[in-house]
């Protein structure tokens, strides 16, 4: 248990405090999550396909979101992976009216949803690699770094293979 408090609790606390909560809320939510986790393990209902740290983090965040909505404390400033990270493949041609977005979608679509999500976390949010590791269920920070390197390489390859798309962006 001390390891869970050391690794997961600070991330949960930071998320809750950034999103209309306080330390007491974070402690309550984390305790509730640990009790739920304990019950699931004891009843053999915990699905071992989930990594424990990531599972505890996600359950805590979802519990906080539900409580905040119920108590009308809604004012979220931090995004989590389950809350509609934009994936370019999901948008149809008709929905995207901006030509720049069409070009960007064409560049990003082939690199895959996981890479888009990882690049979004590292580029547009102020998440620590540890946060990303938990949210995306990587085994370690080193694994996050390696995957990030691979995703950047995929994106650079797409850019190299599609100079016409890059030129279109430069002209607009």
Kindly list the characteristics that best describe this protein:
single chain; about 170 residues; mainly alpha; 9 helices; elongated
User: Mind summarizing the main beta sheet?
Assistant: none
Beginning-to-end CA distance, first to last residue: 55 Å
| Individual helix count | 9
**Average pLDDT over all residues:** 75
Can you write the helix and strand succession as a string? HHHHHHHHH
Helix content: 55-70%
Regions with pLDDT < 50 over 5+ consecutive residues? Answer: 74-98
Percent range for β-strand residues: under 5%
Write a brief caption for the model:
This protein has 172 residues and is mainly α.
Task: Please describe what this structure looks like.
This protein is mainly α. The N and C termini lie far apart (55 Å). The chain is built from nine helices and no strands. About 15% of the residues have low confidence. The radius of gyration is 19 Å and the shape is elongated.
Write the layout of secondary structure elements.
Layout: H1 2-7, H2 9-18, H3 23-42, H4 52-70, H5 99-108, H6 113-124, H7 129-136, H8 141-161, H9 163-171
